[in-house]
Amino acid sequence: xxxxxxxxxxxxxxxxxxxxxxxxxxxxxxxxxxxxxxxxxxxxxxxxxxxxxxxxxxxxxxxxxxxxxxxxxxxxxxxxxxxxxxxxxxxxxxxxxxxxxxxxxxxxxxxxxxxxxxxxxxxxxxxxxxxxxxxxxxxxxxxxxxxxxxxxxxxxxxxxxxxxxxxxxxxxxxxxxxxxxxxxxxxxxxxxxxxxxxxxxxxxxxxxxxxxxxxxxxxxxxxxxxxxxxxxxxxxxxxxxxxxxxxxxxxxxxxxxxxxxxxxxxxxxxxxxxxxxxxxxxxxxxxxxxxxxxxxxxxxxxxxxxxxxxxxxxxxxxxxxxxxxxxxxxxxxxxxxxxxxxxxxxxxxxxxxxxxxxxxxxxxxxxxxxxxxxxxxxxxxxxxxxxxxxxxxxxxxxxxxxxxxxxxxxxxxxxxxxxxxxxxxx
Amino acid sequence: xxxxxxxxxxxxxxxxxxxxxxxxxxxxxxxxxxxxxxxxxxxxxxxxxxxxxxxxxxxxxxxxxxxxxxxxxxxxxxxxxxxxxxxxxxxxxxxxxxxxxxxxxxxxxxxxxxxxxxxxxxxxxxxxxxxxxxxxxxxxxxxxxxxxxxxxxxxxxxxxxxxxxxxxxxxxxxxxxxxxxxxxxxxxxxxxxxxxxxxxxxxxxxxxxxxxxxxxxxxxxxxxxxxxxxxxxxxxxxxxxxxxxxxxxxxxxxxxxxxxxxxxxxxxxxxxxxxxxxxxxxxxxxxxxxxxxxxxxxxxxxxxxxxxxxxxxxxxxxxxxxxxxxxxxxxxxxxxxxxxxxxxxxxxxxxxxxxxxxxxxxxxxxxxxxxxxxxxxxxxxxxxxxxxxxxxxxxxxxxxxxxxxxxxxxxxxxxxxxxxxxxxxxxxxxxxxxxxxxxxxxxxxxxxxxxxxxxxxxxxxxxx
Lengths: 426, 464
What we know:
The complex is a heterodimer of chains A (426) and B (464).
Chain A: E1 2-6, H1 17-31, E2 35-40, E3 53-56, E4 62-63, H2 67-75, H3 93-99, E5 108-111, E6 114-117, H4 127-144, E7 149-153, H5 158-168, E8 171-176, H6 180-184, H7 190-202, E9 205-208, H8 211-220, E10 228-230, E11 252-257, H9 266-279, E12 283-288, H10 294-303, E13 310-314, H11 319-327, E14 330-333, H12 343-349, E15 354-357, E16 370-372, H13 377-389, H14 391-406, H15 410-425
Parallel strand pairs in A: 1-2, 1-7, 2-3, 7-8, 8-9, 9-10, 11-12, 11-14, 12-13, 14-15, 15-16
Antiparallel strand pairs in A: 4-6, 5-6
Chain B: E1 3-10, H1 33-61, E2 68-72, H2 74-83, H3 85-96, E3 100-102, H4 117-135, E4 141-143, H5 151-159, E5 164-168, H6 171-174, E6 183-184, E7 192-196, H7 198-205, H8 220-229, E8 235-241, E9 245-246, E10 249-250, H9 255-269, E11 273-274, H10 277-283, H11 312-323, H12 325-328, H13 334-342, H14 347-350, H15 361-365, H16 372-396, H17 407-422, H18 427-463
Parallel strand pairs in B: 1-2, 1-8, 1-11, 2-3, 4-5, 5-7, 9-10
Antiparallel strand pairs in B: 6-7
Helix pairs in contact in B: 1-2, 1-3, 1-9, 2-3, 4-17, 8-9, 11-16, 13-17, 17-18
C-alpha cells in the first residue's frame, strides 16, 4: 500500500506527541511492507528516514498557472488567530510561543509564474496562514506522486488532505489525535472547529486514537459512527533510559508532569494533594512543567498552605524528565480531556505506578492503572494514599505494568490501519 | 440405590461501604447497610421467598419423597434477621417438614480453613449452633466455602465429628473415576466425600437459559432422560447456588416451571429417589479413597483457589486479616470479633481477582467494584482503621484478664453477635448471656468428648 501522508512534525523536530505518534505508526507500517511519502511543512534534513520518505513542503514548487491553484487561491482568506491551537504540544512550548512573535516568517521565492513557500513548521501566530499554504502545496504534491490512499494527521493537515483528494480522486483518511474540545474545553475556537468539521465531513474515513475521542467526533462533530474507527496508539517505540538516580528525600514523591493548562487538570492534582496532606505529611508533591495556569497553581498551593510539601520544577526536558520519573513513587495524570496520553506509559516504563483520569484515551488500554474521574478528588486522593501506603498494590503495578505497556504495540495499530485501507479501497 | 442429592448454597456477604483513607481513625462502620439491605431485599423477593414457597409445596405434594439440603452462611442468616426476617421464617417452615437437611459451614463464609485451624473450628461451631438454634437440627455434614477441600481440610472436618463433606467432582482429582459414588478421605478417619456432578449441576445453574447451548431449551423430560442415561450411578449430586432460581436465571427463563415439574418427572419416569447428604453418608459405601494434596474448589474452569487467592493483592489482604487474629483473641469486645469475622468473608477476596481481565462475565456479575484495585484499596483502608482500633484497645485494655481468656469463651462471644444484634442496648440480655456462657462452655466440652468417641468408633469400623 502506498500512502501519501500529511503531518506537521516528525522526529527529531517534535514539540509533542504528534510527531512521536506519526513516527511510531509509519515505522510499523513500513515494517509490514507499506510505502509512505510523509509531507512535513518544514524538513530540516536530519529527520529519521528509517520509516518514511520525508518530503519538505518548503521545497515544493507550486505552479501558479494551474487552474486548481487559481480556484483555491480565489476562495482563500487568511485569518490570523490568537488561539490555543496546538495538538499534543510538548510541555510549555506553546506557552512560550504565544508570548513572542516569531521572527522567521515565511519567505516566498518567485520564479516567474511559480513560487515556493518557506514554512516555519511551528505553532506560531501565523499558523492559519501556513495551514492554508500547506494545502496549496498539497495540490502540487498530489499530482507529483503515485499513491493508493491519502492520510492526514490532525486538523492542521486536513485541508491539505482534501485538496490532494480532490486532485487525485483517491480516498482520504483523517487521523484525529486531538479535537478542539480537548484543547479548549467548551470555549472552542470556532475557526479551528470549522476546519476540523470540514475535514471530517470530507474524509472517507476517520481514525481516532481512542473511543473517548471517537465519541467526541460522533457527538460533537455530528459524524456517522460507521465512518469513525478507533485505532489506539502504540507504546513500544518509547525509549526509556535507565538512569540511576538517588532519591534525596526520604518521603514518597507524587508527581504531575505535563503542561500546566486547563485540559491537564493541574488544579485537581493540587486539591487531591491537599486532601492527602491533611492526613499524611510524609509525602511530597511535585508539579513539573509549565503553562498558562502555572501562576494560578502556585497561588493555589499557597492558599492551601501546603507549599512546604509541594514543589514546582518548571519545564523539564530530556533526561530531566527521566530523572523526575525515577524519583517518583506515584504518577498522576488528572487530565480533564486527553485523547490518548502517552506520559502514563512512560511513567510505567520507569516503574512508577499511575493514577489516570477516566477522561483519557489511555485509560481504555491500560489495566494496571488506577482510574478515577478527573473531578473526583476524593477518589484521586484515596488512590494516591493507597499507592503510597500499601506496597502490595504498588508492587503489583510495577510488576505487571511494564509488560502491559510493551504489549500496546504500534504493529497492531499498523495492521488495523492496513485492514481499514483495504476495506475502503475494495 | 440410585439417589439424587440436591444441595443449595445460600449466601450473601456483608459488602463494604466506600471507605476512603480519610475515614481511617474516624469512622468505624465498615459495611454498606443500604446496599446490603437493598440486595438482600431484592434477592429475597426474586429468589429466596418464591423458591422456598415452591420447595415447600413440592415437599408437601410428594409426601416425603422429595428431599433437599441447604447450606446457609451465617452472614446470610445475620442479614436475613436484620433485613428480611420472613426469609428466616420460610426456612423454618421448610425445616419443619423433616425433608430438609441443613449443612454446616464457616459462619462468615470464610477461607479460614486455609489459614487458621483455630479460627476455622470456631467458625464452624458457631455456625452449627446458629443452625441448631434456628432450625432445630444439628448439622452432621459439612460443606466448606466454595466447596474448597483438601486432605488437610478433610482431616480437620473429621476431627470435628462430621460424617461427610461435600466437594467438587473435579476432573483433575477424579481422573477416570465418576463423581456418582461416595468416596472417602485417605486416612481412614471415617469422613465420606460427596462430589458434585458438575455436568448435570451446571446444566441447570449456568446453561439453563443459554440459547447457544445444544441442550437449550432444557425441559424436565430431557433432563430426566439424561439422568437415566447415566451409567450405573449410586448418587447424582446436584450442587448449586440457590440464587440460580430467580436471580441468576430469571423467572422469565422458565426456571421455576422446570423446578416445579422436575420431582414428579423424576419419580414417575426413573428409578431415582431424592436423598439428603446425611442419608447418602449413612447408606453409601465409599468406593475409593481420594487424595487431594492441594485445595480444590467449585469455581471456574480450573477448579482451584485463584478466584480468591493468588494475586498479590489477594494474598496480601488475606495475610493481613489473619495476622490480626492474635490481637483480636486478646480483646474482650464483641464488636472486634464481628468486624474481624465479617472481613474474612471470601467475597472480599473475590472482588480483588484480576482473572476477569481475560475471562469472567461471572466474576463481573457478582462484583460491585469497577476494578480489583478499588476492592483492595477499600479493604486495605478498612483494615488500617481496624488495626488502629485494635492497638488502641490493647493499650488500655484487659491485659491482666488475658490469662483467663479461653478459646471457648471467645466463640460464645462471637455467637452472641446475632443475639446482641437482635436486641442491642438491653442490659438484661447481656446479663443473661453472661450466665449462659458458663453453662454452654461445659456443654461444648462434653460434646467434644462425645465427638472424639464417635470418631474413634468410626475409625475402628472402617479399619475392619
